[in-house]
């Protein structure tokens, strides 16, 4: 009964989405207020119906209702409750339902909080958002119904992949989806603006916070995935340039560009048409990512060809939205009036450069991901594109961008002078050079690029704070005056400073693990000691235990430095009998400037195991930096000027006045 | 070794379905594989990172513990011990397994577009930006600065808006 309710709610949501697509659009065209108003309750109803449907599926998973096909395939009665719940999106059908749920959340948010938007713009945004909903609801209902029943129902289910039974991974898809699908908002606003034929600063003021929120979720989602890969896959890699990762990196890169160009639209009224294009691309790349992962085309072009139904439907949806939006863009964008002028040396130009490098970096990831598929499909020739390719294309494109980051916030709008800006960065540059010299002196081993990489990281961090130092007149005015100024700085300034500093910290982490990682592999018996990067680890004991749905061997290592015990490390090797699959649980001792990473390998003899130990310098900084970037986004979002338009929703102030206030 | 490469493929599919990265436990190099000569061993590691584990999804033989990856690692070391240069080792392996084994795709007519695309994008984008500035410069002359009266009116509006925001 529960499953049927969920199915029925989904069908109703589809019908509501159809209405929501058609009626407000006609209303906006005819300037009919009653038709336009339909969008609001429709978006809210669509959200509630999809939520009901999602709740029904969750209930089926929690109660282990194996008569539902998706549950029988992907759940198991012995699984811990947490993973029964997260198992809802641990499969194709459920994850697409989550995708649609988040889409409808964003639609309902515009409907609920967007009362200050011009009526016709809001009607069109809701209509476009609903059209995306129609496409994906149809996809779900007609090709991947999560509520299909099985008769007879099996005794027990197939279980969730053990690698996915992990807290970080369990919550990583919702964050990723919030990011991906969040860009649908920017897309809907872009298409609506093209239909309206105008983009004003008020438009950017709306698009920016939503894009920022989506970007934060995506950043967090990618960071969680990478962290999971680091500790779960057992060899300490954190980024693999795998197509699935690239699928999430591309929208992130374009989303980052979009965040920056939307600033120019809002503050200066320039770059309108380019920003619209970026908004279209950010969501298009999210759709392409959905296609890549959902169609099975990544595993092999031939797998796609033999079971093409789902892939073809997504491909059709993809072509419709991307093609449609770009056609509309080509037709309407020339009518958008260009805005404020700016000189080659100005904040606007810096943001244009940011967009240029980010766009080129996206192209590098795009061809690296799709070229092998295209070549295979066209000629049957197989090539591999791996990390060496991206190191030679993506990295050289991103490096100049990183070098320029500290300059941007210091440049004035419209027309600026490069010399005083460089002067303000004098201290940061000095500290960066000092870092290079110090690192080169103390760590002469390792690649010669490594000290320069850390210098770049220092440049980013100190450069980011140079902006604040200048604004509060640090060391130039009395300390109390500086503090007073600091309190009155807009939060958006703190936000960008934090985010840029976070990038620097992340760069330091990447350089650290790439340049100075130390590895030791040995066959060990209990009582033996292995030396790795200044630590000694002694294998104390190995014992077996039973988990809720797995069996494990658990070792205890005593980690020592200079003969003194500093930690006990307990790596595990698990076997999940339902899937007959082993996993490794690495043990990590983090000293914040480096990780000691120990993995228990295969048993080699009566009392002997393969042991791998790594010292990964600076690696935690990769995720610390990501979290700081997200915090920067949050601080910026809390700036009262961008609070998702919520404070404005309370009163019916004249929209025009709010739109131009800054 | 209980886990076969094909099982890993299935795991990857599932993980791929969740937008995650590569997903199989791996550990790569086994004790006893290492060469005694540290210089040769270093070169072997470098080469291992350039070679794809053929039965895995997008993983280098340095990262994979599939049996075939191990065979390739041993093969690389054997060739190095024979005195092969890095290129000779790669050529030897490509002759056996084809270009698919290289994680750095060779530069050939079929891959020119692949290698050039990022830089062409950067170049074209740069040219467009330069043209933009050239055009801007021409039109910039036409834009007049605000008159004192206009500036005063603007200030007034901004203040009003700020006051409203603080409410």
UniProtKB/TrEMBL annotation, chain A:
Major location category of this protein: membrane
Keywords, sorted A to Z: Cell inner membrane, Cell membrane, Cytochrome c-type biogenesis, Membrane, Transmembrane, Transmembrane helix
InterPro entries found in the cross-reference section: CcmF_C, Cyt_c_assembly, Cyt_c_biogenesis, Cyt_c_biogenesis_CcmF
GO MF annotations in UniProt: heme binding; heme transmembrane transporter activity
Membrane-crossing residue ranges in chain numbering: 6-26, 47-72, 96-113, 125-142, 175-195, 207-229, 249-265, 274-293, 313-331, 352-373, 393-413, 425-443, 449-470, 491-516, 618-637
Stored Pfam families: CcmF_C, Cytochrom_C_asm
Domain of life: Bacteria
Ranges of residues in domain Cytochrome c-type biogenesis protein CcmF C-terminal: 315-640
Domain Cytochrome c assembly protein per the UniProt entry, residue ranges: 89-295
This protein's record includes keyword Membrane: yes
Stretch forming the signal peptide: none
Localization annotation: Cell inner membrane
Membrane topology: Multi-pass membrane protein
Keyword Ion transport included in the entry's annotation: no
GO terms under biological process: cytochrome complex assembly
Gene Ontology cellular-component terms listed: plasma membrane
Family in the record: Belongs to the CcmF/CycK/Ccl1/NrfE/CcsA family.
PANTHER family in alphabetical order: CYTOCHROME C ASSEMBLY PROTEIN-RELATED, CYTOCHROME C-TYPE BIOGENESIS PROTEIN CCMF
Function: Required for the biogenesis of c-type cytochromes. Possible subunit of a heme lyase.
Protein name stated in the entry: Cytochrome c-type biogenesis protein CcmF
Organism, as annotated: Tepidicaulis marinus
Classification lineage: Bacteria, Pseudomonadati, Pseudomonadota, Alphaproteobacteria, Hyphomicrobiales
From TrEMBL, chain B:
Identification of the protein by name: Cytochrome c-type biogenesis protein
Location, primary (coarse class): membrane
CC terms in the record's Gene Ontology section: plasma membrane
Localization: Membrane
Originating organism: Tepidicaulis marinus
Membrane topology according to the record: Single-pass membrane protein
Keyword presence, Iron: yes
Highest taxon of the lineage: Bacteria
Keyword Signal: yes
One GO molecular-function entry: metal ion binding
TM helices/strands, residue ranges: 112-133
CcmH/CycL/Ccl2/NrfF N-terminal domain: residues covered: 19-158
UniProt record similarity statement: Belongs to the CcmH/CycL/Ccl2/NrfF family.
Gene Ontology process terms (BP): cytochrome complex assembly
Keywords: Cytochrome c-type biogenesis, Heme, Iron, Membrane, Metal-binding, Signal, Transmembrane, Transmembrane helix
InterPro entries, per the entry: C-type_cytochrome_biogenesis, CcmH/CycL/Ccl2/NrfF_N, CcmH/CycL/NrfF/Ccl2_sf
Functional note: Required for the biogenesis of c-type cytochromes. Possible subunit of a heme lyase.
Residues in the signal sequence: 1-28
